Amino acid sequence: MHIFFLLASAVILAYLTTTDLRFRRLPNRWVVVLAVLYPVHALLAPQTGWPVVGWHVLTGLLAFVLLFILYVLGAMGGGDVKLGAAVYLWAGPALALPVTVIVAWLGGLLAIAGWLVDRPGLQRFTNRPWRSMSNALSARRGVPYGVALAVGGLFVLWRHVPL
After folding, report:
1. How many CA atoms lie within 13 A of 150 on its CB side?
2. Which of 8, 14, 140, 154 is most exposed, with the fewest beta carbons within 10 Å of its own?
3. Side-chain-side CA neighbours of residue 88 (13 Å)
């Protein structure tokens, strides 16, 4: 039964990735649904109980505080802070470090890609697929950290799949 919650969460993360690339927005309602799915999933999963959920909630809160500091410094958007808290809620203390590495590396690669597509030499490409991709990645619109966070979230979901 809990595989349903993993699949639903993966679909939400995929949707959030596309909205972040297209609009640089992460709709609150879907981030909240993602966060609410964790405790339901955890309590229905075998060998999980309130103590485990508590540690995951603490990890999500700590991530929220740290990411909020980045938001105050202007390094991250508010939607990214909320999505990061939801992803770290799913990750818990055991997966927090691997998720941080994934998000940091992919966020850096997205920043470099955004800088590259904004280079004047690449503006001569006028075909529609290139324009769409360069607009999605453009650093002038900000770095889509939601994409990196969603990939980190997908890693977490993959780790929760029973083998």
Report:
1. 22
2. 140
3. 24
Give me the number of domains the chain comprises: 1
Residue in the block written with tokens 């999963």? 45
Residue 29's nearest CA partner among 43, 44, 19, 42 is 19
Report yes or no: 78 and 100 within 8 Å, Cβ to Cβ: no
Question: Token pair for residue 160?
Answer: 């929760």
Backbone angles phi and psi of 82, in degrees to 5:
-70, -40
On the 0-12 / 13-18 / 19+ scale of CB atoms within 10 A, 33 is middle
What range defines the domain where residue 78 resides? 2-160
Report yes or no: 146 and 23 within 8 Å, Cβ to Cβ. no
Token pair for residue 105?
């590396």
Q: H helices of 118-144, where?
A: 128-137
N- to C-terminal Cα separation, the chain: 14
Cα→Cα distances 6→40, 86, 96, 101, 133, Å: 11, 14, 18, 22, 29
